[in-house]
Design goal:
By secondary structure, this protein is mainly alpha-helical. The chain has one domain. 75% of the residues lie in helices and 3% in strands. It is built from six helices and two strands; from the N terminus they run ααααββαα. A two-stranded antiparallel ribbon has the order 1-2. Helix 4 packs antiparallel against helix 5. It is rod-shaped, with a radius of gyration of 22 Å. The chain starts with 8 loop residues before the first helix and ends with a helix. The relative contact order is 0.18.
Length: 126
């Protein structure tokens, strides 16, 4: 009879495992940068720029999909009446703003954590 070994959370939930792997891999970069003289502010800036670029990209993809979906909905004729789905500049501005704000807020914790890393420990575990 085989004994089943208990699995850890990162083995049973694939995205969690990927996040754990990318987090440990990302610790080497700020550790190396601090070891060669980067300031805490430089690492914070790098992480926040990465977070805002990623969220801006995601927001742009979401807006493109929303625009395409609005065009599809507008083309549907329901009992002789067309549905008028419109994407305005205000909606696009709001969507991009919310996307970037969420990206910056969610990138704040890893940025602060990475900027406080001890360079020796970060390099040791990489």
């Amino acid at each position: 009879m085989d004994c089943a070994r208990p699995s850890t959370a990162h083995e049973s939930i694939p995205p969690l495992g990927q996040a754990a792997a990318s987090t440990s891999a990302a610790n080497a970069r700020p550790g190396l940068r601090k070891a060669i003289g980067a300031k805490r502010r430089d690492i914070l800036t790098q992480f926040l720029i990465e977070a805002s670029v990623l969220s801006l990209s995601g927001g742009g993809i979401g807006i493109a999909l929303g625009y395409a979906f609005a065009k599809v909905i507008s083309a549907i004729d329901v009992g002789g009446q067309a549905i008028n789905a419109v994407v305005t500049t205000d909606i696009v501005t709001l969507a991009i703003s919310v996307s970037v704000i969420i990206g910056l807020l969610s990138g704040m914790y890893p940025a602060v954590r990475a900027s406080r890393l001890d360079p020796i420990s970060a390099l040791r575990y990489s």
